[in-house]
């Protein structure tokens, strides 16, 4: 390729993965100069090919560390390729974490429907990555590596727990303001993340909600006997969902698969690598449990969860949809059409305004949307014939979500 003109080399490079591109760049001085000179253009073309391509910097997926990676660099594109592998690991058949054959509320799915469901869950996980990447862009400031290293030694857990007591005895007690440096609960980014959720249209909210709900169901399916013996198992599942929302595929793969397809570091066995990453994910969940306890105790300064913001926004859009339907039918035009939220009009369910979340949705509209996307408007007949109770996949999780609102 030494004699090829630069435009031919660049056309080839745009179709290569980043590892191959770097290897090609290292072959000689001419290749290095051409590829380095056009790094930003090459990366922009590659970024556009990913599911939900980011518009700004992204966070790295390292063990107990997430560095901001600048947009348009090979390092950033390599991270996006890593996230694709993380999705493959979590949603792959080997993990057996998500039920694609007979998912709750959808009934038995054929191969085409399973493929659509897998694609929608992938989109939901990538949306979680976009939520996490908010912390990599202004006005948020990147957390220093030293704050990541405090995970697992009790610092953040004890600092949070100590605020429940007027006389903390922990040797790891942190002064007020520790929240501003904790990169795992990431309080500085939380308001911006909730604002991002509010900016999403109805269908994207449905995809995001069902994605994290599927993660919670996967968590419970692996819990085994703990579903009966652990009185906090549903709270743990809710925290697991919240961690997926906050951290995306970085956390999800660590919790489900460990190191996954990226394998162990040099000199480390695969089992040891998986155990190390799973331990990291467990420590992150432990922080979430302490945060939930703080919220339930009314500890000052504890912020509501992202999932409560997701449910609240969906409720607002659903209320607007019902209002649109009432006005639509009151005006005497009964033809079905698309409303302002991009979903077909239907009959108003007539739910009372004071009903709770679990009952307000009855046959929940959020799952109707998802079922239509997976099975088609005329598909999922078996799911349509289910009674209302069967449409609530984990009623206890809905109750806990209300606590976090």
Fold and architecture overview:
The chain is mainly alpha-helical and 405 residues long. The protein folds into 2 domains: 37 residues; 353 residues, no CATH class. 56% of the residues lie in helices and 1% in strands. The protein has a two-stranded antiparallel ribbon with strand order 1-2. Helix 12 crosses helix 19. The radius of gyration is 23 Å and the shape is globular. The chain starts with 5 loop residues before the first helix and ends with a helix. The C terminus is likely disordered.
- Tell me the helix content: 55-70%
Structure summary, number of beta strands: 2
SSE ordering:
HHHHEEHHHHHHHHHHHHHHH
The average pLDDT value, as a whole number, equals: 79
Q: Provide a count of the helices.
A: 19
- Radius of gyration (CA) equals 23 Å
Record keyword descriptors for this entry:
405 residues, mainly alpha, 2 domains, globular
Which secondary structure elements does this structure contain, and how are they paired or packed?
Layout: H1 6-13, H2 18-25, H3 29-37, H4 39-47, E1 58-59, E2 68-69, H5 74-91, H6 111-133, H7 145-148, H8 155-162, H9 190-198, H10 202-223, H11 226-229, H12 233-247, H13 249-256, H14 270-296, H15 306-330, H16 357-360, H17 365-375, H18 381-384, H19 395-403
Antiparallel strand pairs: 1-2
Helix pairs in contact: 4-5, 5-6, 5-13, 6-10, 6-12, 8-14, 9-15, 10-12, 10-15, 10-17, 12-14, 12-19, 13-14
